[in-house]
Structure formats: structure tokens, C-alpha cells
Automatic annotation (TrEMBL), chain B:
The chain crosses the membrane at residues 65-82, 119-139, 151-172, 178-199. GO terms for biological process: protein retention in ER lumen; protein transport; vesicle-mediated transport. Belongs to the ERD2 family. InterPro entries: ER_ret_rcpt (IPR000133). This is ER lumen protein-retaining receptor. It is found in: Cytoplasmic vesicle, COPI-coated vesicle membrane; Endoplasmic reticulum membrane; Golgi apparatus membrane.
Length: 10, 212
């Protein structure tokens, strides 16, 4: 999972 | 945050505001696909449920609230207040052909099988095709008001800028989200035909009419 857990994008 | 993402968000905000003002000021939603606007309201609703669970920044929260508020206001104007001006005969795209496959795909391809993540994934996939009813309606009516083309331009530009944002974030932060990137590429590709017409016609002062 290369995604940060927190979705900081809209 | 980088300049591409910020410009992208502002472009998205501009599109949403342009549409809402166009409908509100002209008291008419002629040429606007109510179905696409319902899909966008669904996109924001399923994507921004984390408003209730986590706080990221004032900017993040403010923009989410504005997006949700404006999209519901737009749907309200189209289907209730200005219903008489809604051109249902040309807004005939079968949205179930979008929602069902997108819903299924969100269950099959996601980062995590949790409710919030499935809904976010559904929202990302749905956003990439949510403009299809609007583009389909323009192809049926054969034309679009100039203000509507500006709305579509900023809406298409926003995700194109996000693509650059993702290149930037991969290079500088090693961050990448394959689901968002693939859906974003599909979404931007769907606008290519419109972008061509916008640049070759609307920017030259002509009206956007099909066949090109």
C-alpha cells in the first residue's frame, strides 16, 4: 500500500 | 500540497461555482444534465464521509463542505426549483450502466475491504465517468451554451492538473495511489474530444456545436 492512510486529497 | 493540486482544486471549485451561478442567474438549467449532477453529488457524498471521522486541515474540510453544498444546491435547482426548465428529453443516459459496473469494480479492486475505503473507491471510479451523461446530452442536442463549455473546461482541467500533482508527489514524496491515477487518466481522456472542440471553437469565439 503506497497510499498514505490518511486521504489528504479532495 | 503543491501548486498543481491547489490549482486543480481551484479549477474544480471554479467549475462548480460557474455552473451554480449560471443556473441561478439565468433561472434555467437548459442544456445541463441533471443526471451528471446527481452523480457528482453521489461522488462527493461517498468520498467525503470522512468529514465525520477525521480532520485533516481547515482547507480540506472547507473545500469538502463547499463541494457538497454546491452540488446538492445544483441538484435541488435542477430537479425542484427550476424543474420546468430541465430538458429531460435529452438527458437520457442510462446511469445504471455506470453505477452498477462502478459499484461492482469498487468491491473487486480496492486498497482495503472496509466500508469507508469501498465507498471512497466507488467515488473515485464513479467520478471518472460521471460527466458522460452531460457529454452525451450535448451530443444529442448538438450544441452547448458557452458558459456550459467553460464549466466543462475547468472540470476537465482539474483532474488533468491532479495527474501532474500525482507525478509531482511520486517524484518528491514517493506517494502514489494507482486507483486514483488510473481513474484520473480515464476521466481526463473522456474530456479530450471536448478539449479539442473547446480550444478550436469556443476560444475562437465560435459556439460549440456538433457535429464538429
Amino acid at each position: 500500500r503506497n497510499r498514505t492512510d490518511v486521504k489528504d486529497e479532495l | 500540497m503543491n501548486i498543481f493540486r491547489l490549482t486543480g482544486d481551484l479549477s474544480h471549485l471554479a467549475a462548480i461555482i460557474i455552473l451554480l451561478l449560471k443556473i441561478w442567474k439565468s433561472r434555467s438549467c437548459a442544456g445541463i444534465s441533471g443526471k451528471s449532477q446527481v452523480l457528482f453529488a453521489l461522488v462527493f457524498t461517498t468520498r467525503y464521509l470522512d468529514l465525520l471521522t477525521s480532520f485533516i486541515s481547515l482547507y480540506n474540510t472547507t473545500m469538502k463542505v463547499i463541494y457538497i453544498g454546491c452540488s446538492y444546491a445544483t441538484v435541488y435547482l435542477i430537479y425542484m426549483k427550476l424543474k420546468a426548465t430541465y430538458d429531460g428529453n435529452h438527458d437520457t443516459f442510462r446511469v445504471e450502466f455506470l453505477i452498477v459496473p462502478v459499484g461492482g469494480l469498487a468491491f473487486l479492486v480496492n486498497h482495503d475491504f472496509s466500508p469507508l475505503e469501498i465507498l471512497w473507491t466507488f467515488s473515485i471510479y464513479l467520478e471518472s465517468v460521471a460527466i458522460l451523461p452531460q457529454l452525451f446530452m450535448i451530443s444529442k442536442t448538438g450544441e452547448a451554451e458557452t458558459i456550459t463549455t467553460h464549466y466543462l473546461f475547468f472540470l476537465g482541467l482539474y483532474r488533468a492538473l491532479y495527474l501532474i500533482n500525482w507525478i509531482w508527489r511520486f517524484y518528491f514524496e514517493g506517494f502514489f495511489d494507482m486507483i486514483a491515477i488510473v481513474a484520473g487518466v480515464v476521466q481526463t481522456i473522456l474530456y479530450c474530444d471536448f478539449f479539442y472542440l473547446y480550444v478550436t471553437k469556443v476560444l475562437k469565439g465560435k459556439k460549440l456545436s456538433l457535429p464538429a
